[in-house]
Amino acid sequence: MSQSSVHEESPLEPLQQLERVLNVLNQMCIGFITICISYLTLRTGLEGTGLHVWLVTIGFSFFMAEGVMVHYGGNVLTNSYKRSTKTTIHWILMILGGGCGAAGALIKMIQNGFLLKSTHGILGLTAFILCLLAMSSGLAALCSMRVKKLITPLLNKAFHNFLGVACFVVALVTQYYGYQTGYFTNRAEADLQILMKCLTFISLLLSSFGPLKSLFIRVKTISKQL
Questions:
Q1: Which residues, other chains included, contact 109 with Cβ-Cβ below 8 Å and sequence gap of 6+?
Q2: Measuring CA to CA, how many Å separate 226 from each of 155, 217, 219, 221?
Q3: Distance, CA of 36 to CA of 14 (rounded, Å)
Q4: Separation of alpha carbons 204 and 100, rounded Å
Q5: Contact call for residues 55 and 178 (beta carbons, < 8 A)
Q6: Domain ranges of the chain
Q7: Which of 2, 93, 145, 166 is deepest in the core (most CB within 10 A)?
Q8: CB–CB of 122/116 below 8 Å?
Q9: Span 95-114, pLDDT tens digits
């Protein structure tokens, strides 16, 4: 191997290391959020609003956050797996995440009689709808070769990618506003509320990087084919 090729490859290594470090930081944020919310909700009992909070946190902030990062090259947990294994893990996590998140949102909507006036409630309803759409598009993406007469597999997967990112972003923004609701403010000190907001925002940014990178590549490929 020539020295020029070595110098061309070496600049990528620090970037890859940075991505892995940031991924470890993200995993720590996800873990802290999940453990903290689980502790608060399990301590007071999983019923009503408590069940809602626990389900949406487990669904969106844990399962879905891990699910959207499965194919990300900087993910230290799945980087060594084969693509087929990553795809299987992705589907399992997204089904669990979408199921728990949608169920948690539905519980609160039923509890409020579908009268959602707050920012948190409106965003929650939006996340619920996007979650159902993302899961439906995911099924279409899984069967992309069967529906290729209607839509190309690349376009279908790009659309699923977009819906998945949109659902995840709206869900975590909803979680952010959830820390301002009475349920959380009555159970957590102001410092913990600020910490949870910061960790959720960091997790949102770091978890979205991989899916957005993948979406950009697919959109770029589609634009070249037009």
A1: 116, 124, 125, 128
A2: 12, 15, 11, 9
A3: 33
A4: 18
A5: no
A6: 15-225
A7: 93
A8: yes
A9: 999 999 999 999 988 888 77
Q: In the CATH scheme, what architecture does the domain 15-225 have?
A: Up-down Bundle (1.20)
pLDDT of residue 15: 80
DSSP 8-state symbol, 48: T
Closest CA to 188 of 79, 82, 76, 43: 43
The sign of the dihedral angle between the CA atoms of 221, 157, 143, 96 is positive
| Per-residue pLDDT tens digits for 101-153 | 999 999 988 888 777 788 998 999 999 999 988 888 777 666 655 655 566 77
What span, in angstroms and rounded, lies between the C-alpha atoms of 226 and 224? 6
Rounded Cα distance, 145 and 153, in Å: 6
Rg (CA), the chain: 19
* Model confidence pLDDT, tens digit, residues 156-167: 788 888 998 999
Tell me, what DSSP letter sits at residue 115?
-
Query: Which helix (H) or strand (E) covers residue 202, if one does?
Result: helix 190-225
The count of other CB atoms within 10 Å of the CB of residue 180 is 13
Per-residue pLDDT at 194: 95
| pLDDT > 80? residue 4 | no
pLDDT (0 to 100) of residue 142: 63
Nearest CA-CA partner of 23 in 78, 75, 90: 75
